Amino acid sequence: MIKKEEIVYRCKLSSEFSSSDKDSFIELFNRVFNLNYTRDWFDWKYVKNIYGDSYIVMAYHKDKAVGIRAFWRNDIDGIKCFQPCDTAVLAEYRGLGIFTKMSLLALENTKGAFIYNFPNENSRPGNLKLGWKIDKHFYLQPVINKKKLRDECGYIQDDYLNWRFIQSPIGDYSYYEIDGESYLLYKRTEKIYYVLGRFNSSFNNKFTKADFPLLFKYSANKGFINNFLKNKATALSLNNEVKLSQRVDIPIFKADYF
Length: 258
What we know:
Layout: E1 7-13, H1 19-33, H2 39-47, E2 55-61, E3 64-73, E4 81-89, H3 98-109, E5 113-117, H4 124-129, E6 133-142, H5 149-152, H6 158-166, E7 173-178, E8 181-187, E9 192-199, E10 208-209, E11 214-219, E12 232-240
């Protein structure tokens, strides 16, 4: 019988992670989600992050890592932001409040920052219970008029494009060019691609060109077709004691899962 009191929590900056910390994190994450991520993935995402340190909470039972919760540094428009992601708890340790405890510990360490994420159906209720609010919905829609795409897509800055997408050891991204504008694409199926944003055309050679793609975009405005297309992304946010002069506009390309 596992007791809640036996679980020990440690919150560290990503730069403070030892080799054994990284291995424990990766091993647990791979085990829960049946993946085969390596140290390259961890170092790219958390050590080489262009914005700086992330906060990572790990839960232990008798020196065995049983839970992880990362608050990934992912700023927006110069505002210090963290995106909760890469959360996992071993099946035999669920129901002990580990997710909530890890979240509260991470929030305590990230005060003064804007928190946002794109939780799935399983973790969304837990976030809402902890005070997150629904920030916006992104509705998936087919691109009917490609000439209007420029005004409908956010621009991905060069440094972010290079780190987040070009250097990613797990990403496989494509591009499409329309009227001299380059668009970053996430491949969904053989011919279906999601448009993530616009970028500097000088980086075209870093991606594979998509030939005759069927393009879909995420829009904050719900269209008639969304009554039939159920696919949408929901962004939650939490003002963790940060003073903001304007509303933070969360772009879809900041989502962790692309």
